[in-house]
Amino acid sequence: MRNYSPLLRCFSSLLTPIFWLLFFSSCQKPEEAAPPPTSTKPYVPPVYSFSEQPVWQDEFTTDGLPTAAKWGYDLGGSGWGNREQQYYTSDLANARIENGKLIIEARKESNGAYTSARLVTKTKGDWKYGKVVVRAKLPQGRGTWPAIWMLPTNQVYGTQYWPDNGEIDIMEHVGFDPNVIHASAHTKLLNFTINTQKTAVLTVPTSMSEFHEYTLEWTPELMKMSVDQNTYFTFEIPGNDWRYWPFDQPFHLLLNIAVGGDWGGQKGIDDTIFPQRMEVDYVRVYSLVQK
Q1: Could you state, in chain order, the average pLDDT of each consecutive group of 10 residues for the chain (291 residues)?
Q2: How far, in Å, are 1, 137, 145 from residue 277 at the CA level?
Q3: Residue 134 near residue 101 (C-beta atoms within 8 A)
Q4: Which of 11, 13, 41, 57 has the fewest CB atoms within 10 Å, i.e. the most exposed one?
Q5: Which contiguous run of DSSP H or E holds residue 79?
Q6: How far apart are alpha carbons 132 and 147 in whole angstroms?
Q7: Residue 163, preceding bond cis, omega within 30 degrees?
Q8: Are residues 169 and 183 in contact, defined by beta-carbon separation less than 8 angstroms?
Q9: CA–CA distance, 241 with 159 (Å, rounded to integer)
Q10: How far apart are CA 166 and CA 169, in angstroms?
Q11: 167 catalytic, yes or no?
């Protein structure tokens, strides 16, 4: 029988370090995975600009009725939700192009009725974001209520209540408060019926005697309104709740003169002032560009 003792002792001396290495390795806590790297770059909001050339415009160069390819009419005398007194028509007497200007004329007819016009671009000019520029001279006199404004083309947030889908008032003026220009945005939770509307005013002493540019700049994050490049109204998106900001859908433009109504008629109507007209030199719409 051979003697294996020296060999076993040698083999045992080799195994001992390996055993203890494996033992201590099994007792160590597994190393946790490192967290994913996080970006240290700050959030940079998008930078927006507008196209250099209009994507839609009317310079009103041809006398007669407004071009049917760009303008339609709201018609009737239902009070329009504000107990207004005028009846809107599509007659040449109330809306026409004359000497390079669009004329919207409010009149008191021989039968005592008031007539006017409300022009709309719905389905002929609808825009989601962009810049809208309207150069206009306003009517004057107690009882007039001209407006340059926008409404949603589609009712994506329901059809039951105003203003769930929003309203953008680029310019409003009431004759009993001369030369004060109003800009507003109305939504379900921000509107004048609950005195929460986003609004601003600017005094423009020559609004009824001279032409001025009334401008809306509208992006996914904010609205700005100005007169002759003087910004006086800013409304930033307050969050992702449509009840505060439904302005993520196409809107169309409206131009009109109302007579009387809950606001325009607060101090009555002076019948001696008629006819009264709003003259529009041009309408230009520029598309939004994201840099």
Answers
A1: 43 47 48 54 79 98 98 97 97 98 98 98 98 98 98 90 95 97 97 95 98 98 97 95 96 98 98 98 97 78
A2: 129, 9, 11
A3: no
A4: 41
A5: none
A6: 14
A7: yes
A8: yes
A9: 18
A10: 10
A11: yes
CA distances from 16 to 3, 13, 19, 57 (A): 22, 6, 5, 91
Pair of tokens at residue 20 = 């203890």
From the candidates 172, 213, 236, 279, give the one annotated as an active-site residue.
172
| Cβ count near 10 (within 10 Å) | 9
Q: Please provide the DSSP assignment of 245-289 as one string.
A: ---SS-EEEEEEEEEBHHHHTTT---GGG-SEEEEEEEEEEE-EE
User: For residue 34, what pLDDT is reported?
Assistant: 53
Token pair 């940079």: residue? 44
Amino acid at 95: A
> Which of 167, 210, 213, 236 is the catalytic position?
167
Token duo for residue 108:
């008191």
Q: Do 288 and 48 meet the contact criterion of CB atoms below 8 Å apart? A: yes
Tokens of 15: 């195994």
The dihedral of CA 204, 207, 210, 211: what is its sign? positive
Identity at 3, one-letter amino acid code: N
What are the residues whose beta carbons fall under 8 Å from the beta carbon of 280, sequence distance 6 or more? 60, 101, 102, 104, 134, 135, 136, 255
86-88 and 114-116 strand pairing = parallel
